[in-house]
Amino acid sequence: MSGRPDTRGDGTRCVHAGSAVAGPDVPLAPQPVLAAPFHLGGEDFYGRASNPTWRALESAIGWLDGGECVVYSSGMAAVSALLRTVLGAGDVVVLPSDGYYLARSYVRDHMAAHGLEVREVPTAARWTGETVRGARLVLLETPSNPGLDVCDITAVADLAHAAGALVAVDNTTATPIGQRPLELGADLTVASDTKALSGHSDVVLGHVSARDPELLARLRAERTASGAVPGPFETWLAHRGLGTLDLRLARQAENAAALYQALRDHPRVTGLRWPGAAADPAHPVARQQMRRFGGVVTFVLESTEAVEEFLARTTLVASATSFGGLHSTADRRARWGDAVPDGLVRFSCGCEDPRDLVADVLAALR
Ligand SMILES: *Cc1c(COP(=O)(O)O)cnc(C)c1O
Question: What cellular component GO annotations does this protein have (predicted)?
Answer without folding.
Answer: cytoplasm
